[in-house]
Amino acid sequence: MSDSRLRFPAEWEPQSAILIAWPHAGTDWAERLAEVEETYIALVAAITRFQRALVCVADDDVEAYARARLASARVDMDRVEFLPVAYDDTWLRDSGPITLRDDDRFRLLDFRFTGWGGKFEASRDDRLVESLDKAQTFLNSYRQSIDFALEGGAIDTDGDGTLLTTWQCLHERHPKATRAELSERLAGWLAQDRVLWLDHGYLEGDDTDAHIDTLARFAPDDAIVFQACDDPADSHHAELQAMAEEIAALRTRDGRPYRLFPLPWPEPIEDDGRRLAASYANFLVINGAVLMPAYGDDADAAAARVLGEAFPGREIVPVPCRPLIWQNGSLHCLTMQLPHGLT
Prior knowledge:
Blueprint: E1 6-7, E2 15-21, H1 33-48, E3 52-57, H2 60-72, E4 80-84, H3 92-95, E5 98-102, E6 105-112, H4 115-118, H5 123-126, H6 128-134, E7 141-149, E8 155-157, E9 162-166, H7 167-173, H8 179-190, E10 194-198, E11 216-219, E12 223-227, H9 237-249, E13 259-263, E14 270-271, E15 274-275, E16 284-286, E17 289-294, H10 299-310, E18 315-320, H11 331-334, E19 336-339
Parallel strand pairs: 2-3, 3-4, 6-7, 9-10, 12-13, 17-18
Antiparallel strand pairs: 1-5, 2-19, 5-6, 8-9, 11-12, 14-15, 16-17
């Protein structure tokens, strides 16, 4: 059973800041750094219209460069704070803190980060939460180290005790654990009392083993926004159709179907013959807005309309994310929201 004092806030609840890490020549972005920097500038500009951005920087030179680029783009620098810390890569959704409310304090869950099952070197990323905690980045909080591999992109909560995740990812990380065992562990650590599993859904070019944040996400008032595929000729069609049927069969806590918001399917994007994982489900909810990954596709406008319906009253802000999917992730993967009061 979960601790009754603890609660895992939904992403659409009030936030104090968004945590990101600036790309530099020592990361996997090196080959296309100029392109991805433009996305980062657009991302920070969008965040700081609504709230603060905490930007991890690897050293003084990276900080000076990032500060100059952002200032020259007329970003509101009063809402930008730089945090010197070591990191291997910039996917903070997976290496950053998963934050629970504990009455008037915060519990920073520090799960093991293994580079998505040992695919990449991740020793510095695995120490990121501890490093930020020791630097007193967070207010009124304490860190709980958990010897269990889990990435933030693998889970999604409605803020009311229901978790959504995919069997493929959790089974890949923990092949000896049963679904019942994984449900119990996740529910206990994350203060949830229901774990909903999807058995279908994947994206070519995704190396996370089907993170839920590329496929399906909760929205307020018992809604689920998910990536659909309406092209029978596309290699994703059967899997995403099966996933849509699974989602339609899910029930809310009081036994009703969820309100469903299918996202449009963009045209295939390839890089040197490799299909890239372009998903509109990888959006980020912030105070007063939803930041939407835009791919320069005709479907961008339709995706914005769907997100506007799912998150009424919030401005939908497109962020150009085509450079990101070259490294197999998108907008949500780069970011971690920090609940109001944590910084």
